[in-house]
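ShKT domain-containing protein
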Amino acid sequence: MQTYCKNTCGLCASSSPKPQPTKECNDGATNCADFISQCGTPKIQEYCKHTCGLCGSSPAPPAPPSSSCVDGATNCAQFSGQCGTPKMKTFCKKTCGVC
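Structure:
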C-alpha cells in the first residue's frame, strides 16, 4: 500500500506544510450569558463554547457596556455565591459588586 499510495499515506515530501483546518469558536445561541452557571453541562458546552471559555486561546467574551453598572445575564442573583469566578465577574458585574 505504501508503495502505490504514497500521497494518501502521507509519505510524499512537501516543500510547504499542510494547511491546518481552522475552527471558529462562537456561541451557537444568543442567550448563553443566561446559562453561564450551567457551563458544566454537555448541551450548554456544545452551544455556548465561547461564553463557557472552551475556545482555548480565544479572547474572553465581551463585557457589558461600562457606562452603567448592570448585569449581563438575567439570573445573576440566583448564582451570587459564585461571584469569585471570572465568568460571573464578567456577566454579573452589578450583582458581584465589580462596578
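The CA atoms of residues 15 and 37 lie 48 Å apart.
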